């Protein structure tokens, strides 16, 4: 059964039409209907993608719990990874679909959040104090779920909601109904998570939510939103986090395009597009990009730990993705995957769930984040035709403001302070330093995939780079340079296994005189070994751009740090030689240090917030390496240190 009218007739008669999906992608002038059997698999690698004729082959419903494939923490609710294997496919004109879909209201009862406002506010305060305030990350997304009961048969309600979405919503990336037999999903997701087409990988970080007034978007209020520092920094932070993901799945990393204003019927968002060339299997691309920082936080691995600590229930499909996999005419794999937000899940018994989340950053307030979850839930319900605002959702679309000259200027201004390394196209070899060509670097990852972006910059400068997790044993011999990278946590801890291992690694590097560069957490640990006291900042430097004096040169760079070393002078005598310090003139915070064969920076030169980051690396690295091109070879204590690292 592939014709929409037959599908609707079966639903009206109370029959199960079998698994299907009805999807409008972006601003297409029609919908796509997919039908076929559903198969449950355990891993993303098991998603079927058979060879054959070009076109879509599988639609996968990826639950949030799939994050365990990457070894990350979650409240495991057991939701299945369901795969609709496309056996029947057709395109349907939008006008035909609107004429066929039921024009009726959707009736619900018993709507309430599973977590009260007071409980959610308390969770926000705990995250701000215990997580961001203690250096566990820059931002975290904590969700809550509005539940209700649908009075109509689930598929009848879903089709009616889909019709309202098609008429009233705009700016959605996918508008859809998916029925697997065990659940129905209906929604209008604004956000592409990742797509692959013609070898081009694209991601779409979105952050910042501007809610329209009762009469539509207000220009003055929108301009105020676009100038709001909290909203700007939130977008920069998710941009950095998705650039980390692009660094893993695109050979040259991602190029930043935008920002843009995404206007929807009830809300507007700010967004960037990221693009890069890649050749990996699309299922690997899905795995390496689980899941969007806009629904988790950063750094990703620790964000998952924080979510598991502070959320009492599993997320089911909230924050996961729908993923359409197939082949193009040339036989290459394709992928199109929106994030499962602005989505209602309806059980066969009529239980409705709409999950929403707020992004918590250092500027957040508990009351403001509670209000944001209400606004998002109201917008979803209104758009779906499920709440008291449903009548407005079916009215005339709000006027567009994205083409307003002041709005365009406000958006363009957001790029002025960002690193051109990620915004501009670069000719191959444009950044190479001859002195680094033929040299190699080992980057030790402290659980922050900023190391992926750092790798692209180091390679751009001419180094051959290998990345190794902090807990993975391996030799140090054969590398000209060791880079001890960033990561979350308290650098002063004497019990954290990661801090113990990285501290031992650095001690061995210093003792052996190996060329060493440290970044953020690595810099803090190095400073501690050199005898500098470490302090927790009263106001965390998470996603903060500053101009600092770096050994006599002003540099604009981005910080993601809660801790800092401090010093009372610009120099320090150590067992490893004289160390020069670049420090803040007010509080003595050490922004950078350099000594014989080693250097450290508290900021992230690889961040999009560091317009001078590449220049900083280009200045520091040649001084660390001996003038001859041979690799550093040594035996002794560093071997055991490498094993501990």
Automatic annotation (TrEMBL):
Residues 117-376 form the Chorismate-utilising enzyme C-terminal domain. InterPro entries: ADC_synthase, Anth_synth_I-like, Chorismate_C, Class_I_gatase-like, GATASE, TrpG/PapA_dom. Residues 442-619 form the Glutamine amidotransferase domain. Keywords: Glutamine amidotransferase, Lyase. It catalyses: chorismate + L-glutamine = anthranilate + pyruvate + L-glutamate + H(+). It is an enzyme of class 4 (lyase). Its EC number is 4.1.3.27. This is anthranilate synthase.
